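Comment thread on ticket #2218

A.B. wrote:
> Attaching the input chain for the structure job we discussed in standup.
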Amino acid sequence: MLILTRRIGESLVIGQREITITILSQKGNQIKVGIEAPKHISVHREEIYKRIQDEGNTDEIENAQDFEQESQMESED
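C.D. wrote:
> Ran it. Output below, let me know if you need it in another format.
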């Protein structure tokens, strides 16, 4: 495992600038992370990804993406 230290506003790049992860803010023990990735790369929180894998249902991927977008909107409020 590679361990890196970043400050708010700093980023890391994965691959040939295909994926960029930016540290947006910190509140208590939570860190808000922004992820820029091509549309063909799915990005999920680990617990959502595990649920998708356990159910083995590709339709669940779309539902998980909708759920994550809703969660993001709620956390921005």
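A.B. wrote:
> Thanks. Noting for the ticket: Strands lie at 11-14, 19-27, 30-36.
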